[in-house]
Design a protein that fits this description.
The complex is a heterodimer of chains A (about 190) and B (about 300).
Chain A lengths: L1 E2 L8 E4 L2 E11 L7 E8 L5 E7 L3 E4 L3 E11 L2 E5 L6 E4 L1 H4 L11 E7 L2 E6 L3 E9 L12 E6 L4 E5 L7 E5 L4 E5 L3
Antiparallel strand pairs in A: 1-6, 2-3, 2-6, 3-4, 4-5, 7-8, 7-10, 8-9, 10-11, 12-13, 12-15, 13-14, 15-16
Chain B lengths: L4 H4 L2 H20 L3 E2 L5 E2 L12 E2 L2 E3 L4 H9 L4 E9 L11 E10 L3 H15 L4 E2 L2 E2 L5 E4 H8 L4 H6 L3 H9 L9 E7 L8 E2 L2 E12 L2 E8 L4 H17 L9 H6 L6 E7 H8 L17
Parallel strand pairs in B: 1-5, 9-10
Antiparallel strand pairs in B: 2-4, 3-4, 5-6, 6-14, 7-8, 10-12, 11-12, 12-13, 13-14
Classes of the chains: A mainly beta (about 190), B alpha+beta (about 300).
């Protein structure tokens, strides 16, 4: 069982027999009062979003999900197709289910697919992915301040903020958990 | 290898933060407040049901410097301030860090009203243009009692909320987001049951002279007229500590020296203001993470 202290973004819970994932989480505490745990959660089957506020002392059942190693194959009309390399079983996930994660998929990428009663309902990507910058504004000469940033687009169409020295055609590493730039990759 | 981008990009925020902290110090020194440092590790904190300390060696890290600050006040120091780190276990959210920076200041010979005036003049020093985005900082700021706030914004009256133990929930979810949106709000006069170290109002003992300052829905500071009756303070500590122990929390020793010296304290008032949140507000940051170099997750 989980307690309120375990609640965080990404945690998967079972409520009334259906799996939910916490998509937004905030801890709040008025003045010297009791702690409140505000969650936005998505039903992993129906996609419906709910707001729930819990108080310390409540407990939660972990979601009974199977996490299986699979490989990304291709995208077709049914969505994004993955294969279990041991038994060649295939599952397909919709773009809606994947959310921003679809921007970080690369051919043959090894991922974990979450299954609930045999149906693919979620994905865990490798923590880091390397993607090529297809557009970044030119580096302004003299802009050497370490903290400055600018917008950039990578090959999958994903937009993010990068340091000012990153240029078009650079290969960069992105943290798939936060969607943020980590570093340039030497080739 | 290139420099850590997550740290490097915080530089503008950290530069602003440093300037704000310097300005706070300059403000209090100009007002003839003595800056003091008190120990971060204590045998125990003032017992509070909903604040958990971090155990450290044979004691606890302080959750506020209040006990030591009030002992100095009782020893005859008229005006004191401190900027220090405080620790509160399990508090982590968009506006909470388990280790954060607190500004506390204390005045003798006055009640909590004087601290409201201090808040207004402190902001005038930090933000001379008197305007923070859409919020007008020109004094006097809004003064709203807790009972009025429940009547205006709550789905229950204060009385109903207390009877059903939904006080904190209504404050946090219904009232707080509405406060300090056009100008800062002092939410004042808390039920005496919700102010462990505050003095009761002389003309209404059901209510304690405590206020919280809100700007743009953000709780910035908590203040009160200090309770100076050692016997009543001891009774309140015993009640709170008994409740803490009932819930299985680590026991605190009774702060005997504090209780003894409280007898020499005359009228006084003190306030604790979250510096990280003040920086959030003055830099329009969305989360507390943006205004500190390291969050616990980055260590």
């Amino acid at each position: 069982m989980y307690t309120c202290a375990d609640l965080k973004k990404g945690l998967k819970l079972m409520i009334d027999g259906e799996p939910y994932v916490i998509t937004q989480f905030d801890f709040t505490k008025p003045g010297k009062g009791q702690a409140l745990y505000k969650c936005k959660m998505r039903n992993m089957i129906t996609g419906n979003i709910y707001d729930r506020t819990y108080r310390s002392g409540e407990s939660f059942e972990p979601a009974a999900l199977e996490d299986r190693d699979m490989q990304y194959l291709y995208q077709d009309d049914s969505g994004y197709v993955f294969m279990d390399t041991k038994n060649y079983e295939q599952v397909s996930l919709s773009e809606e289910t994947l959310g921003d994660d679809h921007y970080f998929l690369k051919d043959n990428m090894e991922v974990k697919i979450l299954l609930f009663n045999g149906r693919g309902i979620g994905i865990t990507l490798p923590n880091f992915v390397n993607l090529r910058v297809t557009h970044a504004d030119p580096w302004v000469k003299g802009d050497t301040a370490a903290g400055n940033n600018k917008p950039a687009t990578v090959e999958s169409g994903y937009n993010l903020a990068v340091p000012s020295f990153v240029e078009t055609d650079d290969l960069i590493q992105i943290d798939t958990r936060t969607g943020e730039y980590v570093t340039r990759v030497k080739e | 290898m290139e420099p850590n981008w997550a740290l490097a990009k915080k530089r503008p925020a950290l530069e602003k933060r440093a300037r704000i902290v310097h300005a706070i110090r300059a403000f209090f020194m100009a007002g003839d407040f003595l800056e003091v440092e008190t120990p971060h590790r204590l045998p125990g904190n003032a017992p509070e049901l909903h604040i958990d300390a971090v155990a450290c060696g044979d004691g606890f890290l302080h959750t506020s410097p209040e006990l030591c600050m009030k002992r100095l006040l009782a020893a005859g120091y008229p005006r004191l301030f401190q900027i220090c780190r405080c620790w509160r276990q399990g508090e982590r959210g968009a506006r909470h860090l388990p280790e954060y920076t607190m500004l506390e200041w204390y005045r003798s010979g006055c009640n909590y009203r004087a601290l409201m005036d201090d808040c207004e003049t402190l902001f005038a020093a930090l933000c001379p243009e008197r305007q923070l985005a859409e919020i007008d900082l020109t004094p006097p700021w809004e003064r709203l009692t807790v009972a009025e706030a429940f009547a205006r914004y709550g789905s229950l009256s204060l009385k109903e909320a207390l009877a059903t133990e939904r006080f904190d929930e209504i404050i946090a979810l219904e009232i707080e987001p509405r406060l300090g949106q056009e100008r800062p709000t002092f939410l004042l006069d808390y039920p005496a049951t919700h102010a462990a170290l505050a003095r009761r109002k002389p003309d209404n003992p059901q209510v304690a002279e405590r206020f919280e300052l809100y700007v743009r829905g953000l709780e910035l500071a908590n203040a009160f007229s200090e309770l100076t009756d050692p016997d009543e303070q001891r009774r309140r500590f015993e009640q709170e500590e008994a409740e803490r122990r009932r819930l299985g929390k680590a026991p605190y020793p009774t702060p005997e020296k504090f209780l003894r010296e409280l007898a020499t304290l005359s009228d006084a008032a003190g306030i604790a203001l979250g510096v990280d949140r003040l920086v959030m507000l003055l830099t329009s940051a969305q989360t507390i993470d943006e205004v500190v170099a390291f969050t616990p997750e980055e260590l």
